């Protein structure tokens, strides 16, 4: 999935993938300081609190500038999650916690999405 958005220094921008009805998912987001992007696995157990596990944190090649447009992309191929910003690979992680298909979502506060797209990478394993 890919989204283009206008960044603000106090914004929260998330891409959520493989979300099930219990709010178990993967979240990729840009930190509000504009210096790093992270991928987290989110697991919610019935009757218990939500657990966030950091899978990877990747410094951005340059600090994001408030008011500028950026493109963020999260690819999922099998158990690999790949994060790109402005077509530059930031990093990837492997995790098998959420291997089934689920919902995807874009979320932002204090920012505006310019467009969003679902990208078919051409294989059954790439489908969230």
Structure description:
The chain is mainly β. The protein has strands at residues 2-6, 12-19, 25-30, 36-44, 50-59, 69-77, 80-85, 88-94, 103-109, 112-117. The protein is built from no helices and ten strands. The strands form two sheets. The chain has a five-stranded antiparallel β-sheet with strand order 8-7-6-1-10, with no helix packed on it. It has a five-stranded antiparallel β-sheet with strand order 5-4-3-2-9, with no helix packed on it. A hairpin with a 5-residue loop joins strand 4 and strand 5. The termini are close together.
How would the global form be characterised?
A: globular
Number of extended strands: 10
SSE pattern: EEEEEEEEEE
What integer is the average pLDDT?
A: 78
What portion of residues belong to β-strands?
over 45%
Specify the biggest β-sheet.
5 strands, antiparallel
Low-confidence stretches: 124-128
Helix content: under 10%
- Backbone CA Rg: 14 Å
Strand order across the largest sheet: 8-7-6-1-10
Structural class: mainly beta
- Count of discrete alpha- or pi-helical segments spanning 4 or more residues: 0
Q: Measure the end-to-end span.
A: 10 Å
Assembly status: single chain
Set down the secondary structure blueprint.
Elements: E1 2-6, E2 12-19, E3 25-30, E4 36-44, E5 50-59, E6 69-77, E7 80-85, E8 88-94, E9 103-109, E10 112-117
Antiparallel strand pairs: 1-6, 1-10, 2-3, 2-9, 3-4, 4-5, 6-7, 7-8
């Amino acid at each position: 999935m890919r989204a283009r958005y206008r960044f603000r220094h106090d914004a929260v921008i998330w891409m959520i993938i493989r979300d099930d009805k219990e709010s178990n998912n993967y979240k990729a987001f840009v930190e509000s300081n504009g210096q790093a992007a992270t991928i987290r696995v989110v697991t919610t157990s019935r009757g218990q609190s939500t657990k966030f596990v950091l899978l990877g944190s990747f410094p951005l090649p340059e600090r994001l500038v408030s008011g500028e447009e950026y493109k963020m992309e999260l690819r999922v191929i099998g158990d690999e999650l790949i994060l790109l910003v402005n077509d530059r690979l930031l990093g990837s992680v492997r995790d098998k916690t959420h291997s089934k298909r689920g919902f995807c979502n874009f979320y932002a506060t204090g920012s505006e999405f310019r467009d969003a797209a679902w990208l078919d990478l051409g294989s059954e394993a790439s489908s969230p």
